[in-house]
């Protein structure tokens, strides 16, 4: 075989390879879209049959089992009893059409259908699409109660907006989660780690940490040195946020945050704003992550400071979902009692 070399050939090879890869991706997406639409239609047929009164009550529970057996014999896999239950539930959850759902795989949808609350279910569907979550990441975000953590810091209007739109990043406060959950570090309880060890573990688990921080974060460095009047300081972790176009500085604290820690972070923000920012960059954001947070101290220590400086809690274990859910219910109930408009 005659060897062909040169830039023209390499460009041809890349063009064909890209076209093939993109074509396969589009074909897979088309197959997935058709599968989701088909399952929605199957769910509609089941529900309409039930609602039309074609089924006597005593045989209601047997319908799915009979369909699973008969459809399985005709078409093979895909019509197990458990899958038919989910297909029926899928139609009931989205009776007006599978609008957003065609952007997700059936495995994503099955995980989302396990959520009872419609607000929470809507959020995870939106967020899975917005951030391109794998099924594994969707499961993790459900387990560490991302929706409840985000909702805990919002008012009723904010919660209602969060459900149909997901988390939209428009301002620094939109980055925040309370608390940040670092269960992926798998630090045994009772934990005994230093700040340096915690920082090292986060860097060793950078991918899940970036997922916990949220969409748009890119890692810049650790122990980032800055020098002011011949005095050296080091920022624990430095990121750049592609969407908000700004540096995000993170300092880690094992105990309670002191007012000196807040003043030091404010110094870091001033330095980055004047020495590291380039044209087009927005003011930097500072986040102090701490195991404990004295709200009153933070309020007084940040008085008159930049609104870009935040003190947030983190925890090493999964949050108590029921505690977070109670907080959410209290917020919604208080808003309703106070006459807040929908």
Automatic annotation (TrEMBL):
<protein>
    <recommendedName>
        <fullName>Cytoplasmic protein</fullName>
    </recommendedName>
</protein>
<dbReference type="InterPro" id="IPR011856">
    <property type="entry name" value="tRNA_endonuc-like_dom_sf"/>
</dbReference>
<feature type="domain" description="YhcG N-terminal">
    <location>
        <begin position="17"/>
        <end position="149"/>
    </location>
</feature>
<dbReference type="GO" id="GO:0003676">
    <property type="term" value="F:nucleic acid binding"/>
</dbReference>
<dbReference type="InterPro" id="IPR053148">
    <property type="entry name" value="PD-DEXK-like_domain"/>
</dbReference>
<feature type="domain" description="YhcG PDDEXK nuclease">
    <location>
        <begin position="174"/>
        <end position="328"/>
    </location>
</feature>
<dbReference type="InterPro" id="IPR009362">
    <property type="entry name" value="YhcG_C"/>
</dbReference>
<dbReference type="InterPro" id="IPR041527">
    <property type="entry name" value="YhcG_N"/>
</dbReference>
<dbReference type="Pfam" id="PF17761">
    <property type="entry name" value="DUF1016_N"/>
</dbReference>
<dbReference type="Pfam" id="PF06250">
    <property type="entry name" value="YhcG_C"/>
</dbReference>
């Amino acid at each position: 075989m005659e060897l062909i070399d040169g830039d023209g050939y390499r460009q041809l090879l890349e063009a064909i390879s890209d076209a093939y890869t993109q074509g396969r991706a589009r074909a897979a997406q088309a197959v997935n879209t058709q599968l989701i639409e088909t399952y929605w239609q199957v769910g509609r047929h089941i529900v309409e049959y039930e609602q039309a009164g074609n089924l006597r009550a005593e045989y209601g529970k047997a319908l799915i089992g009979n369909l699973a057996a008969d459809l399985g014999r005709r078409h093979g896999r895909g019509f197990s009893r458990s899958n038919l239950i989910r297909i029926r539930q899928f139609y009931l959850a989205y009776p007006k059409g599978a609008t957003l759902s065609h952007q997700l795989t059936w495995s994503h949808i099955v995980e989302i259908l396990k959520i009872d609350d419609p607000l929470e279910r809507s959020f995870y569907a939106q967020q899975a699409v917005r951030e391109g979550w794998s099924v594994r990441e969707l499961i993790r975000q459900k387990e560490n109660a991302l929706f409840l953590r985000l909702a805990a810091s919002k008012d009723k209007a904010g919660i209602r907006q969060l459900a149909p739109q997901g988390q939209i990043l428009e301002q620094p406060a939109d980055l925040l989660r309370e608390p940040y959950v670092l269960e992926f570090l798998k630090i045994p309880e009772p934990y005994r780690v230093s700040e340096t060890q915690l920082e090292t573990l986060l860097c060793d688990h950078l991918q899940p940490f970036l997922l916990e921080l949220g969409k748009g974060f890119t890692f810049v460095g650790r122990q980032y040195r800055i020098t002011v009047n011949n005095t050296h300081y080091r920022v624990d972790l430095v990121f750049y946020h592609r969407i908000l176009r700004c540096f995000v500085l993170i300092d880690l604290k094992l105990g309670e945050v002191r007012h000196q820690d807040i003043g030091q972070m404010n110094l870091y923000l001033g330095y980055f704003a004047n020495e590291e920012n380039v044209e087009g960059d927005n003011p930097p954001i500072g986040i102090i992550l701490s195991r404990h947070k004295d709200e009153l101290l933070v309020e007084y220590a940040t008085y008159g400071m930049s609104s870009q400086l935040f003190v947030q809690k983190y925890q090493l274990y999964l949050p108590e979902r029921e505690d977070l859910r109670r907080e959410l219910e209290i917020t919604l109930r208080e808003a309703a009692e106070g006459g807040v408009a929908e």
